[in-house]
Specification:
Two copies of one chain form a homodimer. The first copy, chain A, has helices spanning 4-25, 31-41, 48-59, 64-85, 102-106, 108-125, 129-132, 137-151, 156-166, 173-198, 203-230, 233-236, 242-246, 251-255, 257-273, 283-294; strands at residues 95-96, 99-100. Helices cover 73% and strands 1% of the residues of chain A. Chain A has a single domain, classed as Orthogonal Bundle (Farnesyl Diphosphate Synthase), CATH 1.10.600. At the A-B interface, helix 2, helix 6, helix 8 and helix 9 of A face helix 2, helix 6, helix 8 and helix 9 of B.
């Protein structure tokens, strides 16, 4: 496989092109809502989740074309969650990825509705007859069920609720882990599982991918927390030190910086070792795991 | 069939019991989010949309048991939309159905997240293997696609955006109709279509049901507007005259009260006449249409 940076660039382009095509195919949306949706969807996301879906699909030997709409749907769900998390009533963030947050540009009403619309549109993509008519509909339903569980109250939404509630409170490591596995980990795991399931992976293969997803998800969030303490603002595109200032529940806050980095490294190693069964086909997934461990933004 | 009020009471009980059972089966949700979801879900809704799904299912001769989870899912989507519409950044309402709105009781963060969770949960219900394993998965995907289109930017969310944007502006009847057909009509139509499709209705039957849904949806919203002008606060459970005070785009605002009532009556008659093909089996749907025309709250 090519260098991981080139791989990520190539896959990001595939996802970006698909998202651009999809959004421009939408007709009849009020311009305000369409603009607010596109604003955040094309605000410089790394496309980590859809790339994970594509890479998992490759690991189980699937044909990449069919999985792309699902990868895009997951990115829509991720984007909606960022828009709502940034709202004044939630994290009240003015900047994300170096640009103004959705509600700062489009106003709160449009930001709430753009989030709602992106979430709903994700399910519309995953049930589009042009996409699913050539697929096993039972597998598609299973994947949608998995994703909705990961995105909803038992997953991401529950994690965000716990995160908001933990602000300014004393929390232990199991509470921080609950927040991270739900707020970030659940959708990352679902992204990986979706690729495996749509690619026709065996039950054991999906179990291995789930373990990979859970561990890189945790590592990803720990490193996010670490970067919030010691990252460079220009590189990150958002303010450093904001978690501590706000009394957020974080790994460095509970374990300290060094122990947090060790924990992330351990999760990355576990993630990589859970991919053994796939051999060379999981090379991209392994390199993505290492990339997450080494990321600076 | 029994008197329409008894019919509606019976069906409401079926829906309420299913919703109660479903919500109590959810495990692992943070208590705050679970409570906020249940608060609005059990705040006295008439269950019009799920009852329409059940009645349409009966009209095409389906077996009611299988359709119930989809009827519940639609009620979850409707409930989420009310929670988000009431937020300070949107309609800023303190009361709905005579009780405090979600964000007034649970705070804005929990209200936004409870809405997000209800919307996502709806898609989780509709893809639950315990529900769909005995059904044609292609039909289920088609129904979910229909519902997500009706709920998202091309439907309800788009209508709400247009409604918020129209506040205080001079609008013509076609603009008011756009808002109403999207904000309210789309999900009502989808409720009716879902029952027909899940019950195995022919393409022509679904077309007739769609026409019924579109016209009762418009009548429903016109009467809502009329009641906001001349209804009784104690009966409605919300303030009267609020639309005019806020410069909302409404039928009475554009056509006046009498012409609005005539228009609603005409839509009800059109709705009833589009049900001819179903004979006696559509008796509940016809009576629901008349009930909508005569409602006082």
């Amino acid at each position: 496989m090519p260098d991981i940076k080139i791989y990520l660039q190539e896959k990001k382009k595939v996802v970006d092109d698909a998202l651009t095509g999809y959004m421009s195919s939408l007709e009849g949306n009020p311009p305000t809502i369409q603009k607010a949706m596109e604003y955040s969807l094309f605000a410089g996301g790394k496309r980590l989740r859809p790339i994970l879906t594509l890479a998992s699909f490759e690991a189980v030997d699937g044909d990449p074309g069919r999985v792309l709409p699902f990868a895009c749907a997951i990115e829509l769900i991720h984007t909606y969650s960022l828009i709502h998390d940034d709202l004044p009533a939630m994290d009240d963030d003015d900047y994300r990825r170096g640009v103004l947050t959705n509600h700062k540009v489009h106003g709160e009403a449009a930001a709430i509705l753009a989030g709602d619309a992106l979430l709903t549109e994700a399910f519309r993509i995953m049930t589009d007859s042009r996409v699913v008519s050539s697929m096993d509909p039972a597998v598609v339903l299973d994947v949608i069920h998995d994703i909705s569980g990961a995105a909803g109250a038992p997953g991401m939404v529950g994690g965000q609720m716990a995160d908001v509630e933990a602000e300014g409170k004393e929390v232990d490591i199991s509470h921080v882990e609950y927040i991270h596995t739900h707020k970030t980990g659940a959708l990352i795991t679902a992204s990986v599982r979706a690729g495996g399931k749509l690619g026709g992976g065996s039950e054991e293969a999906i179990e291995s991918l789930s373990s990979y997803g859970r561990t890189i998800g945790l590592a990803f969030q720990i490193i996010d927390d670490v970067l919030n303490v010691e990252g460079e603002e220009e590189v990150l595109g958002k303010s450093v030190g904001s978690d501590a200032g706000r009394g957020k529940a974080t790994y460095p806050g509970v374990l300290g910086i060094n122990k947090s980095k060790e924990t992330a490294d351990a999760f990355i190693n576990t993630a990589i070792s859970s991919l053994k069964r796939f051999g060379d086909k999981a090379e991209p997934l392994k390199k993505i795991a290492r990339y997450i461990g080494d990321r600076k933004k």
